[in-house]
Design goal:
One of its GO terms (biological process) is regulation of mitochondrial mRNA stability. One of its GO terms (molecular function) is RNA binding. InterPro entries: FAST_kinase (IPR050870). The protein has a 4-stranded mixed β-sheet, with helices on both faces. Strands 4-5 form a two-stranded antiparallel ribbon. Helix 3 runs antiparallel to helix 4, helix 8 runs parallel beside helix 11 and helix 14 runs antiparallel to helix 15. The radius of gyration is 28 Å and the shape is globular. The chain is built from 25 helices and 6 strands. By secondary structure, the chain is mainly alpha-helical.
Length: 537
């Protein structure tokens, strides 16, 4: 966040005729304001850009919003003086708005502040750029999105400075990309992708100085974007996790905030990264010490992540899995959000269907940890909360019903199935009402899933080729559950479907998918004829 220093000065008790220095220093020098503070008429014309920034910073530091009149006066002064702002002023103003949970109320003030930001990015230090990036990501949801010219200027600065940023600045900048909708959209542009790639590449360089908060923010940002860090970055992150966990010769483990361990485990699971043995041991120890203080959000996400990694990546199930279920059983269900109920129940399904069932028939430890996993699974089940098979299951089913959505891709695939004369139904519940099927072929007991972008993670935010995408672990879990419930399963990636040219190509493609899933189609249906494909395109 931003900040400011500041000298003395005297406070103008009647709020009028305040000088430049007295008005600004009254905010941050003495750290108190009169009850009805107003910059005053003379100050509105005499205040400098630095004075405006300091006054806003003073309000923000106290957690007190200026009166509407005072705020407008300060913003009008900012419009007048924006050409003289320096980087410190800009950072303080942005920080103040975020801290006060607001954004410029006058459109001209917003334009002036953004213009100053864009102008100054050419000479900003890395910390200033990271602070501005963070601030833009933290503005209220109803605030206007940053202008494209502002974002382009920030992206160029990030590319220029990424090689010299400290770990905290790299983490803040990456977090800014991930948490601001406008910045996420720009990752599909060359400028946005270059900025992200430059920052992500810097992760490997700063691993030795990362705090646990840095590790958490960097991994979480990559998880939100759906872009895996490079192998070098992952190695640096895991060395930091081990170091911070006391395994690097630096003494005992530090106390880690529950949210940070939750974010780290979630990022590994979301991106499908299998943590190394030493990193997993350090994460296990961190969760053991923080599980009892986790809220429902942190506990449910960590539980889901741990068991999802075991099911999809074969990651060793850590001992904290038992501790997490014990912590879950002691939480107050009245504090649960819908997403928490669903994460707890999803974790229990993975436990029962994909881990316990996988071990059926294996009578002894095979030397690979099978016996240890079975013992952990039994111990965890003994800690299951009473609400798991009642309230959590009911909320999961409700979410399945609420999440039914027939997309354009579904309708396009349905039209092609009709051309192939295949009987089918759209958005059908499984018999146990635990999953919704995109398309179901009742005569064959085959499921067709048409998967959009949310079902994939890629190597980088600017990469759009199919070779850069892979199914997300969540999608792998869905496929595993559906394969247990139905005779066949076929998946249609959106990027493959959208690359097809014409109805003939779509028929040929879908016929091939269905035959591979066990559907016995007439050989004449879906045959690929290049001439027909060209006519239908």
């Amino acid at each position: 966040g931003g900040g400011g220093g500041g000298g003395g000065g005297t406070e103008n008790d009647n709020g009028s005729n305040g000088s430049d220095s007295s008005v600004s220093s009254s905010g941050y020098g003495r750290n108190r304001f009169p009850k009805h503070y107003d910059p005053g008429g003379d100050a509105r014309t005499a205040m400098s850009a630095r004075a405006v920034a300091n006054a806003l910073w003073g309000f923000a530091t106290l957690g007190r919003r200026p009166s509407p009149a005072a705020w407008k006066a300060l913003e009008r002064t900012m419009i007048r003086t924006s050409d003289t702002m320096n980087a410190h002023d800009v950072c303080n103003v942005w920080w103040s708005y975020v801290t006060l949970e607001s954004s410029p109320s006058l459109p001209a003030a917003r334009d002036a502040l953004e213009a100053a930001t864009a102008r100054l990015t050419r000479t900003m230090a890395s910390k200033d750029v990271a602070n501005v990036t963070w601030a833009l990501s933290m503005l209220p949801r109803d605030a206007p999105p940053p202008q494209e010219s502002t974002l382009t200027a920030i992206e160029r600065a990030e590319v220029r400075l990424a090689g010299s940023m400290r770990a905290r600045d790299v983490a803040s900048a990456l977090l800014g990309h991930a948490t601001n909708a406008g910045r996420r959209r720009r990752l599909s542009t060359a400028s946005g992708a270059d900025a992200w790639d430059s920052l992500s590449d810097a992760v490997g360089r700063v691993g030795h100085e990362m705090s646990y908060e840095d590790v958490s923010n960097i991994l979480w940002a990559h998880a939100v974007i759906g872009a895996s860090p490079s192998e070098g970055a992952v190695r640096a992150i895991e060395r930091a996790i081990v170091r911070l966990g006391g395994g690097g010769g630096g003494g005992g483990p530090i106390v880690v905030a529950p949210k940070e361990t939750s974010n780290v485990f979630y990022a590994y699971a979301r991106l499908g990264l299998d943590p190394g043995d030493d990193a997993l041991k350090a994460l296990d120890a961190a969760v053991e010490t923080s599980a009892s203080s986790m809220n429902a959000q942190a506990c449910s996400i960590t539980l889901w992540s741990v068991v999802a990694l075991a099911a999809t990546r074969g990651t060793r199930l850590p001992g904290c899995y038992v501790t997490l279920w014990d912590a879950a059983s002691k939480l107050d269900p009245a504090s649960f959000l819908d997403a928490n109920w669903c994460a707890f129940f999803h974790a229990s399904m993975i436990h029962a269907e994909l881990l316990e069932a996988r071990d059926d028939g294996d009578d002894g430890d095979d030397g690979g940890g099978g016996g240890e996993m079975r013992a952990l699974l039994r111990a965890a089940r003994a800690n299951y909360p009473a609400w798991l098979e009642s309230d959590a299951k009911a909320e999961w089913r409700k979410n399945v019903l609420d999440d039914v959505d027939v997309s354009r891709l579904h309708l396009s695939a349905s039209a092609t199935l009709a051309e192939l004369r295949v009987q089918h139904e759209i958005e059908v519940l499984t018999d146990d009402e635990l999953f919704s099927l995109d398309v179901y072929l009742p005569e064959h007991d085959v499921v067709l899933e048409v998967d959009g972008p949310s079902h994939y993670v890629g190597g980088g935010p600017g990469d759009h080729g199919p070779g850069e995408r892979r199914r997300s672990p969540s999608t792998e879990l869905r496929d595993a559950f559906l394969s247990r419930r139905h005779r066949g399963l076929a998946c249609v990636p959106f990027f493959e479907w959208e690359a097809l040219e014409g109805r003939a190509q779509r028929r040929a493609y879908l016929a091939g998918k269905l035959r591979a899933a066990g559907v016995d189609l007439d050989p004449s249906l879906g045959a690929s004829y290049p001439e027909e494909a060209r006519r239908d395109a």
